[in-house]
Every structure is written in C-alpha cells, then in structure tokens.
Design brief:
- With 67 residues, the chain is mainly alpha-helical.
Length: 67
C-alpha cells in the first residue's frame, strides 16, 4: 500500500494523470490504478517502467516504504 501511495504522490506532484503515466511507462492504466490502490503486486520490470515514467530513480519509489 505504501508503494502505491508513493507512486500516486509522485504522479500528482508532476501533475500527471494515470493515463499519462501509463503512456510514459508503457503500462496499462488499469494496472496503474490497481497499484495506487494497493490491489496489485508490482514486479521488478514494472517498477523500472514506473520509475522511467515518473523520471525518478527506482529507489525513490521506496522512500516511504518501511515494511
């Protein structure tokens, strides 16, 4: 859940819609929504795609994950 919240915060800070992030990362918009809601598990490839789409280092996606 914390990972999804971080992705949502980064996306909104850049004023991106889920659709725009999906396009930038090459992932489906429904998958992005599921990740942000904590309903989907995220694979390593998807993490790198999301980081690329958000223009951040992959480690930044884990900045608020404590467990």
């Amino acid at each position: 859940m914390a990972l999804g919240q971080t992705i949502r915060q980064l996306r909104k800070a850049q004023e991106l819609t889920q659709e725009e992030l999906a396009f930038r990362s090459g992932l489906h918009v429904n998958y992005i929504g599921g990740i942000e809601r904590g309903e989907r598990n995220v694979g390593v490839k998807a993490l790198f795609s999301l980081a690329r789409g958000l223009d951040v280092q992959p480690s930044e996606l884990f900045s608020s994950v404590t467990e």
